[in-house]
Amino acid sequence: MPEPAATAATARLDRMGFAARPRFPSPRHQAMAHFLAANGWNGAAPVPLAADASFRAYFRLRRGDDSAVVMDAPPPQEDVGPYVAVAAILRRLGLSAPEVLAEDRAKGFLLIEDFGDDTYTRLLQRGADEPALYTLAIDVLAALQHAAAGAPTPDLPQYDEERRSPKRSCWSIGTCLRCSACRHRSPCARNIWRCGARFCRSHASPFGRPSCCAISMSTI
Q1: Structural domains present in the chain
Q2: Cα separation of 93 and 37, whole Å?
Q3: I want to staple 123 with a disulfide (CB 3.0 to 4.6 A). Which of 73, 80, 128, 194 is the partner?
């Protein structure tokens, strides 16, 4: 039987309308409620945040002046292990990444630090200095490359051509680009990724992975 606090948290999720969404079946409700109750957030109602191109979902929690984010990454579609590993690497290198406050890897839940809503898009819409922001982003990439040069290779899957393939993505590139490198024109997204893969292999990072491909390909 669920504990009273967990049951109350589940009821809050139901009142927010999650029960009507097939992505959040009732067992998932209860699992999240138990996770929140076990980690001191049983009085907070999860508020949905923007989704990404995956099975993951994110919710903001508030408790007085404190806030946190809960990641719902349902197995077997998702694995929170790589996220935890990469966040630890970035923080160890002195870079900014959300602190993992609590985790349940078996059930696919993370409680992470809330970095707020100030994305680059929102900052620019409010009149922020565009060159300064992108200079900062480039400086961070350079710092990551420099710090990674002397770091051990993390035990993570190689970001190879198959992992970059559109077959592994839930979205497709609905446009036709012209690649001057291979002089090939095709509406097939796979050719775009193959062109990018050739570039990435010639610009390997100290981790044996592309230094800029993940960012470049995600912005096509």
Answers
A1: 4-113 (3.30.200.20), 157-220 (no CATH)
A2: 32
A3: 128
